[in-house]
């Protein structure tokens, strides 16, 4: 769980959500790229879950 969730999630949260708030930005420079990175993270998590579940067969 540490290697599959916490390590990838912490830089994603810090880089995409907390740092713009910390520097006082009113918006992101590239919001669609930011949202795209979130979707890639979710899709890769689903892929890992599918590989783990289907790999046991």
Give the beta-strand count: 0
Count of alpha and pi helical runs = 2
Helical content, roughly? over 70%
Shape: elongated
Give the amount of beta strand, in percent: under 5%
Q: CA-to-CA gap between the ends?
A: 21 Å
- Average of pLDDT: 78
Uncertain segments are: none
What features would you describe in this structure?
By secondary structure, the chain is mainly α. Helix content is 79%, strand content 0%. The protein contains two helices and no strands. Helix 1 runs antiparallel to helix 2. The longest helix has 24 residues, at 31-54. The protein is elongated and about 50 Å long. The chain starts with a helix and ends with a helix. The mean pLDDT is 78.
Show the helix and strand layout:
Blueprint: H1 2-22, H2 31-54
Helix pairs in contact: 1-2
Short structural description:
It contains two helices and no strands.
Which features characterize this protein?
57 residues, mainly alpha, 0% strand
